[in-house]
Amino acid sequence: MSIFFHESTKTFHLSNGQISYVMKVLPNGALGQLYFGQALRDRESFDHLLEMCCRPMSACVFEGNGQFSLEHCRQEYPAYGSSDFRHPAVEIRQPDGSRITDFIYQSYSIAPGKPALEGLPATYCEADSEAETLTVRLKDELLGVTLDLSYTLFAGQPVLARSARLENGGGLDLHLTAAMSLSLDLPDMDYEFVHFSGAWGRERWMKARRLEQGIQSVESARGHSSHNHNPFIMLRRPGTGEDSGEVIGFSLVYSGNFLAQVEADAWEVSRVTLGINPFGFDWKLAPGEAFQTPEAVMVYSNQGMGAMSRAFHTLYRTRLARGQWRDQARPILLNNWEATYFDFTEDKLVSIAEAAHSDGVELFVLDDGWFGARSNDFAGLGDWIANPDRLPGGITRLAQRIEDLGMKFGLWFEPEMVNKDSSLYRSHPDWILQTPGRRASPGRNQFVLDFSRPEIVDHIYGMMAKILSEAKISYVKWDMNRSISEAYSASLPPDRQGEVCHRYILGVYALYERLTVNFPRVLFESCASGGGRFDPGILYYAPQGWASDDSDAVERLKIQYGSSFCYPVSSMGAHVSAVPNHQANRRTPLSTRGNVACFGAFGYELDLTKLSLEEREEVRRQIAFVKEYREVLQFGDFYRLLSPFDGNFTAWMAVSPDKRTALVGLYKVLNEVNGPFRRLKLRGLNPEFCYTVDGADTHFGDELMCAGLVTTDSVITDQTAGKGFSFDFDSHIFVLKA
Ligand code: DGJ
């Protein structure tokens, strides 16, 4: 792994045998982008990649040089208005009303490892040898503002992590109105723009369209990364598949308002911009102050989307997620939400837990409704003290009763919210985000605490820490059930109100940091009405997240498949729930609910005491299966085989690192009559190994990957061996052992 700087051509070349990233100081001192892609041999000059020419209507940098216009240069961190007319990476509003900046190269440094980003989640190294970081310093002389662009190259991985830091070393009050984490100008626009969009209950559905001249983007202005869009996009060449073709994944390690945008200009250059959404953002940078952007991560693959995803999975599972749970197989949990909603007593909970324990569940999670006056969703949020009517012995006694059964106990919180009907609100009505003189809009009957204020975060920490210290709590589900409106903080002056949304997220991160540091043994699961904040920022603190409130097995195929493009299986909370399903009103077989959920952080979301004896037997078999294979399922290499977005069948598989064990999930939505024969081409196996399939037939890896696994002709051919499909929503997990 090397980062080269060639003084004679002022060229930076970051290369690790997998990828190369080449930049050059342009004639005016700005930083130009020359190449990002497969690793190149190093050379003194890549100047031939710097294309310049004289074009009508262009504004030029130098008088007498019609060739050099920033509009026609590919740049690293562009600004608008000084011969470039595209959307910028940085914009600074100045006291005289100008927004023009001119960041000129000053110096660079290269250091082993990767420095942390203060107050922000980011990927990290455990040893300096794992990565190298280049920091290029630029400066706007007139304003006295320095800009540090950081690039971390990870050894042996097709990954580059970027961020920017601006510091006001001058004497003027400045306002940052755009400070993106990443800007990348690619030399053509022959790409498909792929994003993962949806809404509550159908998060991260894959959408793809050809790039066109103009701007295409996804964003959030809801105060959280959102169900609607995810801070992850791909640019892929037409024809790119799972194991061939070129694709770049762009991911933002951030949980608040974001923008992921591609601007394809008239000359077919594609400018990718990723970072905090400039819409509504206005950060005052007073003299002496600095601003650090969140981190953006780029992964390049010329071996298709599968290799790109596996690079993200490895990085995010092992060098973004942290803590003791990072590398540990996740406990099988039962969550009482869909089992009881708000209707429970201590004894009822214990009886559900007893049944769960007898079937092999390891962790019982008490969801919403245990605190304050919370008997419905109109009251109680903010009062993190057990409701004595429901839990006379408090959380401490309930947790002990669960522990006495031989299980672990977990608890739900929604730390960022308050109901007006709560002691917290009655004592501090001024603690919510609200705009003076305007009404505050409720969402799920609740309001958002102003987490940009450290004293409010402190107060919530105090309540949560008390419970976590007093009771035996091994797991916390951190929920967040509404988007942020009237984002105005009583503690900030008028010229800093554009900072509220980012400061809010910094407050969320500060609370997560404090809780995870002080309660290191607790497993945190993030949630925001399901997958409303399922992003890499939260993954840094909580190694798993409730992927969606939609627990229907068929719906989950799309949600988990879409999520898998960026996020590892271990990060996706996935539960077996009751039928008819509470969201989709659909009846799917218990086997299929288990077969979908086991490709995730597995659990149950139903009252097991209401199942028949046969169903309980099946639950026991599912639990035994997950216990046997969860390391492979959660930490193995993940391969997508058939897309739920393309047809009636979905298939995916997980392969152990030594390739000796593989689990193939095959799912059908609607049954067919007199359908064709089918072979499922597997991936990631060792071609030389001979595998047993479900303990019976043996096949070599090459045969399974090239000829495929013969599954069915859709008329039942071999139902007893589980290979035949016989009904709607049927599925099977094939177990392959070398
Ligand atoms: C939304 C979550 O996504 C659900 O799982 C559940 O925890 C409810 N909130 C509780 O109010």
Q: What this model shows, in words?
A:
This protein has 738 residues and is α+β, with helices and mostly antiparallel strands. It is built from twelve helices and 38 strands. It starts with a strand and ends with a strand. 53% of the residues are buried. It binds (2R,3S,4R,5S)-2-(hydroxymethyl)piperidine-3,4,5-triol. (2R,3S,4R,5S)-2-(hydroxymethyl)piperidine-3,4,5-triol binds next to loops.
Quick rundown:
With about 750 residues, the chain is an alpha+beta fold.
Helix-residue proportion: 10-25%
Report the sheet-strand fraction: 25-35%
- Oligomerization state of this entry? single chain
Ligand roster:
(2R,3S,4R,5S)-2-(hydroxymethyl)piperidine-3,4,5-triol
Structural class computed from helices and strand pairing = alpha+beta
* Rg, nearest Å: 27 Å
Number of strands: 38
Low-confidence stretches: 714-722
The number of helices is 12
Which descriptor suits the 3D outline? globular
Amino- and carboxy-terminal Cα gap:
35 Å
Write down the overall mean pLDDT.
Answer: 96
**What summary fits the major beta sheet?**
10 strands, antiparallel
